[in-house]
Design brief:
It is a single chain. The protein is 42% helix and 12% strand. By secondary structure, it is of the alpha+beta class. The strands form 4 sheets. Strands 4-3-2-1-5 form a 5-stranded antiparallel β-sheet, with no helix packed on it. Helix 12 runs antiparallel to helix 14. It is globular, with a radius of gyration of 30 Å. The N terminus is likely disordered.
Length: 553
């Protein structure tokens, strides 16, 4: 069928493009023949490549130029775009998928450890800045019209719906990944090929550390390019070359074991369980994204140690490590010592909580909370805002006793009891269940977050729990409470406000709590002179990492 003149040209507002913008043209491939019947039409045959110069959105036609230089108008249904950007995917991925800019991550060609040292939140700022520049170039809607991604009169509600669909898709992928990791820990996810069953945790850790030496490359898979990965064949060759396997069959068996135990992962299909020499892989400890934090390997058959001792040792070692590194977070992620510590965290996956009693349960979960927060700051980078911190609390989780716990779960559901798991959720049996308001307030004073608005990172044990909580509270309030006798106001940090908003304490009870945990001279002023009111400092919580003096010495 021919294309009428009104369909070809249309009004000026209906078509976009021009010869001066040839570099930005999209390329189309003809999917069926079209025979021109007028002088300004372009005949095309199936398979012809055409550069699109302009669109008539209302008529569904386009103006293009073939490789031989001839040009004209033709119906869009006759071609398939070869280079077509989906704006919704682009805008969403630039804002939420925190991937490294192509070519900026160091590559390993000599076998040394290569890890992205950029903070998750530094990269987030870079992508926001890039998106801002993109949007400032011209109005977003105009850009989408120019690229023929949306049509004239595109409904704003449809755009919102498209964004909502993208978010739903991301949440579905996240839920699928959480289920996959849970099945791995519980042993339900079986390897599809032969694995090395008798490998010990110690030997697996040694192999996991050495696998970081496999050179990283930029590779293509199914028309898409992936940075910083290695092929399955490269891993098999490396295992043979470094004497971990005597032949290709044994090396492939070890590679399948590494994939089955989550030491490595398929960068194209994260939930893939079948090793292939043609697929692309990376080491799990290099992952810097919202999600599971202690799955750099799956804990195997070795019996986990005592639960409380495990949490105590992990927090002690991490505090000492961070203090020794002098808070140099960017250098930690690529440090072999930190990688080894990350592998140790896998033991939490199968720890047993049944033995925890009154006192030991509270100490365990407070230590776990502080461990989770400090570890996430080391791995992801310290959050730059309250919103970043909340994302960490809600989106990052640890697998503990075969269940997954976010920081918010541990804080609100387990320790403070301000939120609750569903009745049938097995995590509901693990809560502390403290009813006394003042003791819950002390628990809150034991939870650190690496800012000046929260206490220090203290190490708890059943025998010292009450004393350590009191010390943490007194030191924190001594440095942050200010009493104005003239105005009869007690200026407290924002954390104290949560005693009212989260623990539902009355102002009088909060004043009594503050008076019990500040220096005696200040407490005497509060008790002797009635009429004091609570006020809260407008603090933004500057980064501040203080540690238990008994741990750092």
């Amino acid at each position: 069928a021919s294309v009428s003149r009104s369909e070809r040209g249309g009004s000026e507002s209906n078509w976009r493009g021009g010869r001066e913008n040839m570099a930005a043209y999209e390329t189309a491939v003809a999917v069926k023949d079209f025979k021109a019947s007028k002088d300004d039409e372009l005949s095309i045959k199936e398979g012809d490549r055409v550069k699109i110069k302009a669109y008539n959105n209302s008529a569904g036609t386009a103006q293009g130029e073939k490789e031989d230089g001839t040009s004209g108008w033709f119906p869009m249904e006759a071609v398939r775009l070869e280079q077509h950007m989906n704006a919704f995917d682009f805008l969403a991925s630039k804002d939420t998928e925190l991937v490294s800019p192509r070519g900026k991550t160091p590559r390993n060609r000599k076998g040394s450890i290569v890890t992205d040292t950029g903070s998750l939140f530094d990269r987030k700022e870079e992508t926001k800045e890039s998106l801002s520049k993109f949007l400032q170039a011209q109005p977003p809607k105009q850009q989408l019209l120019d690229k023929n991604i949306i049509l004239e009169g595109y409904d704003r509600e449809e755009f919102k719906q498209a964004q909502a669909n993208l978010q739903k898709e991301k949440e579905n992928k996240r839920a699928k990944l959480e289920k996959f990791f849970s099945e791995k820990v519980e042993g339900k996810a079986k390897a599809k090929k032969a694995v090395v069953n008798d490998i010990s945790e110690k030997k697996l850790d040694e192999l996991a550390m050495r696998v970081l030496e496999v050179p990283l490359e930029r590779s293509k898979h199914r028309m898409k390019t992936y940075d910083n990965c290695f092929t399955g064949s490269a891993l098999v060759h490396w295992l043979q070359e470094n004497k971990f396997a005597k032949d290709k069959a044994e090396a492939t068996k070890y590679a399948q074991t590494l994939l089955h135990r989550s030491v490595i992962y398929n960068v194209v299909e994260r939930t893939s369980m079948s090793f292939s020499s043609k697929d692309l892989y990376n080491v799990s400890c290099r992952v810097v994204e919202y999600g599971v934090m202690n799955m750099d390997k799956v804990w195997g058959s070795d019996e986990p140690g005592d639960t409380l001792t495990l949490a105590t040792e992990l927090l002690t070692d991490l505090i000492k490590y961070v203090h020794r590194k002098k808070l140099d977070f960017p250098s930690m992620r690529g440090d072999p010592e930190f990688v080894a510590f990350s592998l140790r965290l896998a033991e939490l996956q199968k720890c047993r909580l049944e033995s925890l009693t009154y006192g030991s349960k509270e100490a365990f979960w407070i230590n776990i909370f502080n461990l989770m927060v400090l570890y996430m700051h080391c791995r992801m980078g310290p959050p730059k805002s309250g919103a970043d911190r909340q994302l960490l609390y809600d989106k990052c989780y640890f697998v503990i006793a075969k269940s997954h716990f976010t920081v918010s779960d541990v804080r609100n559901n387990i320790i403070l009891g301000t939120d609750h798991f569903p009745a049938k959720d097995k995590r509901a049996t693990m809560v502390v269940g403290e009813k006394d308001g003042k003791r819950r307030a002390l628990f809150l004073m034991g939870l650190a977050d690496g800012t000046s608005d929260a206490p220090a990172f203290y190490l708890m044990s059943p025998s010292t729990l009450e004393a350590k909580l009191s010390d943490s509270c007194r030191i924190f309030l001594h440095d942050s409470v200010r009493i104005d006798v003239d105005e009869l106001k007690v200026f407290c940090p924002r954390l104290i406000q949560r005693l009212r908003t989260e623990l539902r304490m009355k102002d009088d009870a909060i004043l009594d709590f503050v008076a019990e945990n500040i220096v005696p001279s200040q407490a005497k002023v509060l008790r002797d002179q009635p009429g004091f009111e609570l006020a809260y400092d407008d603090s933004r919580g500057e980064p501040c990492y203080a540690f238990d003096p008994e741990v750092i010495g």
